[in-house]
Amino acid sequence: MTVIQPLRRSRPRLPAAERRRQIIDVTTRLIAERGFWGLSMQDVADGCGLTVPGLLHHVGSKDGLLLAVLDHRDEEDRRALEISLGGIPAAAVASPREICSALVRRNARQPEIVRLFAVLEAESLAPDHPAHDYFEERQRRTIETLAELLKGRAADPEGLALRIVALMDGLQIQWLRNPAEVDLVGAWEDAAAVLFAGAR
Fold first, then answer.
1. DSSP characters for 97-125?
2. Which residues bind DNA (predicted)?
3. Which of the residues 16, 103, 127, 191 has an alpha carbon 20 to 30 A from that of 162?
């Protein structure tokens, strides 16, 4: 008589930093596909070869996992933007338009990340969403930073900053819906020529 052994989950031991990166990558992909409310901790654990308790050991909770993903993406974007601007911190660059164009070019190379943020930003309009405060603060900080960079360059820096953010977000949604027909970078540059026309 043949005895069938139960399947054992393969859990190769990874250094903590490498495991955390793996968890963030798997979670990023799943949230982009399903949204936060459709995210299952079991699916994340399965994607990483972990048990759910093993996953929770690294991230603490589902909300903690979401915030870890968002913080990681912000840091990656900040670092990539600085590299694309020749190693100069974004705040030190003379042209706000150059900063925005660099961001759009980066986003055009990472549709999955843009989709992740678009899905989460829409979901987080609900006050009980765990990323509600994160996105509210992120939006406020983005507009304030842009407005500061536009001071002395535009008659209404706050209004222009708001329009820039609205344009970038709107173009990204159109591009995600129809990437074959919408050239995100080209559409941004065409619109930016009009948007920044009055700015020095």
1. HHHHHHHHHHHHT-HHHHHHHHHHHHHTT
2. 40-59
3. 127
